[in-house]
Amino acid sequence: MRRAGRRIGFVPTMGYLHEGHLRLVDRCRELADWVALSIYVNPLQFGPSEDLERYPRDLERDMTAARERGVDLIFAPDDRELYPGARTVVVTPRRLADRLCGLSRPGHFEGVLTVVAKLFAIVQPDVAVFGQKDYQQALLIRKMVADLDLPVRIEVAPTVRDPDGLAMSSRNGYLSSEERERALRISRALADAVRDYRAGAQDAGALRAGVLGKLEAGGGVDVEYVEVVSAEELEPVERLGDDTLVVMAVRVGATRLIDNALLGSPDPGLESLV
Ligand code: AMP
Fold it and tell me: pTM to 2 decimals?
């Protein structure tokens, strides 16, 4: 494909594909002539007490869904193929990984960047598409590509939500129906934050307190963090602006969920809740 001068697009995933992944495929098709999708549950990015073993997997179903959506190549390596021996070199972020999800998941972003760098080297895409749902991840990948001059364009596509507002995730299947009802506080709190911002709210501390209060009201949601930060540096802000990111991680039962909204440009699924 490369010799034929075709533009190669790439969508890395951990599989158990849902519409969020498939929208990345759609975006990739708009930007490339030929689309590769990887499915790999990367052990390097899971902590010792995390859900690596029970992470959902269904390769047959994924292959059908990907093919139906027009994916040209599926790369589903196993651990021995990607990590055949002792690791001597990894990609470690110096900045931006010491906050938000990095606090509770030490080594997580090192695992992500290392596997994404390897996948880029193997697939050699012209463009790769990531989801805004994993905002900190997409930002760190953009920084890696810039700092290491990797010859790939990074595209970030909006978060895809179920009609009730819950951001799609392979982990949503862990939720019981009561837990799912509680999880809806996440998108509602984000939509309220966008609405307050549009109504003239300026104080980041007050906005953060409001979001936290809505998440915790009624109990049963364990907030890991809620932060109101600048989109490029992930630094807490005092005054809200279009490039302010409201970002959070919460636990509902045993399931860890993340979500975020850029106040100036919330995703379409959130817009409909505002
Ligand atoms: P994962 O399989 O969860 O590692 O995700 C693979 C890619 O899909 C990452 O770039 C994610 O950000 C993206 N992704 C996952 N869920 C969503 C979603 N609901 N909307 C948009 N992108 C998503």
Answer: 0.98
